[in-house]
Amino acid sequence: MGKTKHTGPIKLPAKPDPKLWVSKVPFGLGKVKPQHIRETAKIAWQNRDNLPYAYRILTQGVCDGCALGVSGLYDQTLAGPHLCTTRLNVLRLNTMPAIREELLHADIDELSRMSSTELRQLGRIPYPLIRRQGERKFSRATWDEALDTIAAKARAIDPKGMAFYLTARGITNESYYAAAKVARLLGTNNIDNASRICHSPSKTALKRSVGVGASTCNYKDWIGTDVLVFWGSVAANNQPVSTKYMYAAKRKGTKIIVINPYYEPSMEQYWIPSIPESALFGTKLADDVYQVNIGGDIAFMNGVMKVWFEMEEAAQGSAIDHAFVQAHTNGYEQLRAHVAQQDWTTLEQSSGLSRERMREFAQLLARAASAVFVWSMGLTQHRFGTDNISQVANLALLRGFLGREHCGLMPIRGHSGVQGSGEMGTDPFSLPGGDMSSAADRSRIEQLWGFALPSWQGDIVGVTLENALLPEDQERKLRLFYTSGGNFLETMPDPAFVREALTAVDVRVHQDIILNTSTLLDAREAVVVLPAMTRYEQPGGGTSTSTERMVYFSPEIAGPRIGEARAEWAIYADLARRVKPEAAALHLGCGSAEAIRAEIALAAPSYNGIQHLKERGDVFQYGGAWLCEDGVCPTPDGRGALLPIELPQLRKPEGHFAVTTRRGKQFNSMIYSDIDPFNEADRYDVLIHPGDAAPLALSEGEAIVVYNRFGSMHGRVKFAEVKTGNIEVHWPEGNSLIPKGVYEPHAGIPEYNTAVIVEKAETYHAHKDTRYVEKRIEELEIEAG
Fold first, then answer.
1. What percent of the chain has pLDDT over 90?
2. Of 132, 469, 532, 648, which residue is 20 to 30 A from 374 by alpha carbon distance?
3. Which residues are in the Molybdopterin oxidoreductase domain (predicted)?
4. What is the DSSP letter of 626?
5. Considering the entire predicted model, what is its pTM?
6. How many whole angstroms from its chain centre is CA 638?
7. Could you tell me the strand order of the sheet in which 371-375 lies?
8. What are the C-alpha distances in Å from 419 to residues 6, 180, 370, 412, 747?
9. Mind listing the pLDDT tens digit for each residue in 744-781?
10. DSSP state for residue 273 in the 8-state scheme
11. What is the secondary structure of 287-305 as a DSSP string?
């Protein structure tokens, strides 16, 4: 861990810089862009029934949107207030009234006709609900009735048939910790969290490459670094406040590079509402965009390293920081030999970029004295996601871009709570402050908690869902599934399979603040719904951990409360007392938020300090400003690992397109607009390059079907600057195309990319043969062979 402390926020330049302006036309009139003023007015109107409370949440609470870590209206990076439409959109979840009873207890078929957006707008869940097999409506339940139903099932089954899952919907470290402890007390290691479908490869790869599982640097390091690289990350859309940091970096002369299959308009230029100059004239963000093939990043990075090693042959020290490599890494010669055997033709075909373009990027980094690499799901949501991230780490290690100012590796988090989830032990492979696989960590936690941990390996959430369909005599057949937030129908591949799995569970528990489409599915015995508090309602407040490892305290905020909603950590503790009363009385220790924070400080040594967070604005950063400071990694020998990474097989037969999913105007799976404000794409628009559409005789707006052997999607053609041979569809609308059961072997993230056929809808539907799709796929694969 580092010894240097974060130095706090800095000021933006006062004088404008017209060189960065997008246009002299004020407010981007006539351009496709978010309408921030209009959006803010709309959100204010939505919250008109609770404006004073909404104002207190914004000015006193820690953002429950993305993980940039804005406390009130301020953060630790830039002086001055920050506010973004992502946070404003999520605001209504906290200020909504309760769902009206006549809607809450309507026939299940009537509710099921609503989309998740419509269900969300109904309001908050006010009290516990239960719907038993054969019942067509939810009935009101007491807390005793609801929790006793769950507890009875938990006592009756093998703990291997019980699983917990927590999303990152504003959930605090205290709730994560309580869930992790309660799950183990009840005898199960089947507990997982939202990072499994977003950033689990980041943690896994960083730990194996440099010994840490979090960002090694800060947002301040963006400002003044020579090169800032966004890899498969559309931060301007998903973390809008970050555009202020990009603006500050541009003012310091930083070059911003974007690597992505789609030339994302929001990363090229943006109108930043809280900076007057940018709000008026916009800001040019990206200096260059490298459009790789979907899944082509490993080949691209091998090409970059190949250039570096060629440069080294001509002039030693022209590309590699040999002093850093010799002092702080292992595996240099093996990596060099591996890269040397890569041939340029394969690298160009796989990456989709020419040798010349790879050389440009390699030389840019070779000339740079500093660089920060930022990435998101464009790198992680692959069956080779961990290898993608270790490859990024290779670049940083070879250039010494680690453990010092303006350098580092940053998996930018899209959820306010997800960084802390695994660190609190809400993970089948993790314990608070350690790993399940470590005998020392297991012994340490058993001594602290006072009970033996289950010794068997728990399952990731994807496998948990598959376990619901195991035969009755299998001990791991999923019989009790307890989820805090989340909607697997709209987050996991193959929604039809997910529906089948969820309805096959005996008792399914939804601990949440709102209804969604998965809440309404049947269960074999009962569906139990438990009303949760938001982070702003929890007695004693709560904490969350930002992307840059800042642990923020968010206080309880005075305002209206929803019916019988309870703090999430308190619900878990109550359940434990009902399932195992004697054990819970002896070992639980989750009586208050303050008590949980005190125990977290003991269980997770890096979180020592969390016990002192009590007031609005309290914050500390674990690990110091830079992890791996001065190149010293927390690995057994203190050195980082340079790893030879093989090229993945991209599996795109002739006549197919590679497809990936992207986000529009949404937060997680919660959609806030049917139209993307950056490119005017509809949710069912398929982004395709005009050059790919021409041979198929496709015109813009034309109805098409995208399909493969896993499923199909009906959409319309939307011309866009997507890398040729690749298309993009929105998530979750495109999840029907993604196969189930394909996981990254190291981190368990599902694969969210595949190969598809694109056809005119009239052609697709003109064929009455029910085997047309199957035969069409086979024909193209035979041709490819």
1. 83
2. 648
3. 124-577
4. S
5. 0.95
6. 29
7. 288-290, 255-259, 227-231, 371-375, 408-411
8. 19, 15, 25, 10, 15
9. 999 999 999 999 999 999 988 887 565 677 777 776 66
10. T
11. SEEE-PPTT-HHHHHHHHH
- Report yes or no: 530 and 146 within 8 Å, Cβ to Cβ: yes
Cα separation, 283 vs 277, in Å, equals 8
Q: Dig out the tokens for 73 from the structure.
A: 């209206």
Beta bridge partners, 758, equal 706
Closest by alpha carbon to 553, among 626, 607, 511?
Answer: 607
**Can you tell me the distance from the alpha carbon of 315 to that of 318, in angstroms, rounded to the nearest whole number?**
6
682 secondary structure, DSSP code: B
Which pLDDT value is given to residue 139? 98
Residue 331 pLDDT > 50:
yes
Has residue 231 got a pLDDT over 70? yes
- Both tokens of 375, joined, read 């990435």
User: CB neighbours of 276 closer than 8 A, spacing ≥ 6?
Assistant: none
For residue 760, what are the β-bridge partners?
A: 704
Count CA atoms closer than 13 A to 703's CA, side-chain side: 6
Q: What is the pLDDT of residues 527-553, one digit of tens each?
A: 999 999 999 999 999 999 999 999 999
Please give the Cα distance from 340 to 336 (Å, whole number): 6
Q: What share of the chain is helix, strand, coil (3-state, %, to 5)?
A: 40, 15, 45
Collapsing DSSP to helix, strand or coil, 410 comes out as strand
Residue 534 phi, psi (nearest 5): -80, 170
Strands 753-760 and 657-662: antiparallel
Closest CA to 405 of 160, 663, 625: 625
Q: How far is CA 371 from CA 256, 384, 506, 742, in A?
A: 10, 24, 51, 34
Q: What distance separates the 2 farthest-apart alpha carbons in the chain?
A: 77
Cα–Cα distance for residue pair 109/584, rounded to 1 Å: 40
**What amino acid occupies position 158?**
D
Provide the pLDDT for residue 770: 58
The answer to whether residues 57 and 106 touch, using CB atoms and an 8 Å cutoff, is: no
Residues shown for the chain: 785
Q: What is the mean pLDDT of residues 1-21?
A: 92
Please tell me whether residue 314 adopts helix, strand or coil conformation.
Answer: helix
Terminal-to-terminal C-alpha distance of the chain: 52
Q: Residues 396, 217: contact at Cβ < 8 Å?
A: no
Ramachandran class of 408: left when φ > 0, alpha when ψ lies in -120 to 50, beta otherwise: left
